[in-house]
Fold these 2 entries.
Entry 1:
Amino acid sequence: MESAAGGGEGGFRASEHQHSRYNPLRDEWVLVSAHRVKRPWHGQLEKPPPEDVPRWDPKNPLCPGATRANGEVNPNYEGTFVFPNDFPALQPDAPEPDDSGHPLFQAAAARGVCKIFENKGAMMGCSNPHPHCQVWASSFLPNEARLEERTQRQHHSQHGVPMLLEYAEQEAQRKERLVVENEDWLVVVPYWATWPFQTLLLPRRHVLRLRDLCDSERNSLASIMRRLLIKYDNLFQVSFPYSMGWHGAPTGPHLQEDCGHWQLHAHYYPPLLRSATVRKFMVGYEMLAQAQRDLTPEQAAERLRALPEVHYKLKPQKTV
Ligand code: ZN
């Protein structure tokens, strides 16, 4: 049997013929219409991100030694600095909503903590150029995690193996969607990718949560993330915007449950499509019916794979 990426018996070519692909993690389909990428673009152009952001800006509230909005002064940190978000979307002490008495108007208590992953670049709604991320811990399983909980559990009960462990093994063999790999990790443009250069970062062994990684896996993780991010920046020679996040097995009461169906993974969702200024919009058919992409995941992976692993801003050394 031919994969959707290859040439089938009926002359099917994924790079030319529109088709749908199934995303087993979200239980949804994406329409792949690779021929559309050739069409002329008359849509919105984005401003490229600023090139020369200072490494230290005393007016930036996330920088070492700077004063934050609540008046607290950051220590002169040299490594990772974690602090509660000054404007958290979740707080630990929210009251219980009243029962509306009707199933179409349901509300539930939402409690949690926010500490400053989210995104990089103004195009992804990032409000601060300083590299930062956010840890959200909530009293409920948010939608994305709830969906992945259901699909991974279902896959495990049907096939007896964690979905993303099996998927990583398959992609390591097939190679056509591989972007970078090392002894512990691999990065692919997933078979079911929706965003043009979306990637999925997967461990090779079964890992439930970030804290289950050993020292060498942390080091190889830092290395593969660096290689991927250099390729992203090199793609359009710009500081590449994206939204990135980790999904691991739930904690709290779920710690007592068997979470063997879970596999730790990270998603990268970059919005850029064909240059530093043309981004992908999820509107119209995509909002009302189904997501659609303009180049195949194999084409996106091939482009990323072919890019150098030296950052475009680092000039090559002159050899004597
Ligand atoms: Zn996920």
Entry 2:
Amino acid sequence: MSKAFVITMDGPAGVGKSTLARRLAAELGIAYLDTGAMYRTLGLALGAEAADLPEEELRRRCAAFAFSLRRGEGGSWILCCCGRPVGEEIRTERAGRLASLVARLPVLRSELQKAQQELGEGVSLVAEGRDMGTKVFPGARRKFFLDARPEVRAERRFRELLARGLEADFNTVLNDIVQRDEQDRGRALDPLRPAPDAVLVDTSDLDPDAVLRVLLNSVHAALGRDGLRHEAEPGFTHLAEDGSLRMVDVGGKLETRRVARARAVVEMSASTLDLLRRDALPKGDVLAVAKVAGIMAAKRTWELIPLCHPLAVNYADIRFEIRDEPPSVLLESEVRVSGRTGVEMEALMAAQVAAATIYDMAKAVQKDMVIRDVRLVYKSGGKSGDFRAE
Ligand code: DC
């Protein structure tokens, strides 16, 4: 991974972006760019009157703020303005409000966006803000959009202010958050919204460690896959063309061929499904692991179901279909054997274990997923003939 890459993290005020972006950058050993700090610096320095300045004058004033990134002690990254670290004075609610106000000015935005792109040139970084994925770094290797319910964000910000020894009133903080949301999401220019290819993470019910695991896993999936593409040997036979795992059918030529297929549905929330679809769940590639688990279950069914015969399974596979309505994964197992007994139980076990594996892989983000509709949908071969579910 010698080429520089950018990871973007956008989201509303108080969602925990700064902490997570900083931790993610530290874990990956790359720079961290807090673009909100740039808007705060200009907001504080220019004040609300910036809106009344003629364009050229505003451009001239913006040009006086030269931003740079410097490596601090312990590998942290410090944002500097005119060679001096940006200070704590920008961390007040007033500075946040002013930042949000000046962020609506086209000249100021374009000057800061140019500066941000320059900071990202040739440097790997996690860039945090409102328009990182949509505008400033459209080609980022991974884009995240963090969100959380306004009450949760207000609670976090409220506690943060108290911890810093500042006076705070919860309702004021909540109103402030709601107002900032309206301003940031509703403005005409580069409004806060997820990039179409962003990974959406709802942090309302997750602690920062759990969110960080989701982010790290997703970044590794994005960067690792590209790396693997270069390294993979051509003609690697246990990978299908699309990269999924497949067991080779060795029984096609035998006469007493039996096939069974079973289905199960795992219902989950839309946000869990989104993480699964984007390969961003904390334990890794859910469907690949569920597939292997299902195949193993088919082969070991005789050990678990008391009156089942041991069978030499010729082929076992699990196929998945991701459905948005209701948010769920439909999975179907298929097991084939050449033998004297059917493979319905193998197919049913494969579907159930694959479904339970999906639950296991995703339970860190959702505990109330429902596994349902486990049933045999097809069987062929044997004395009782063929069966196909309605
Ligand atoms: O992330 P923050 O709270 O420090 O940001 C302060 C304000 O700056 C935010 O309300 C909107 C603005 N901002 C922006 O418009 N674009 C960015 N990339 C970052 C911040």
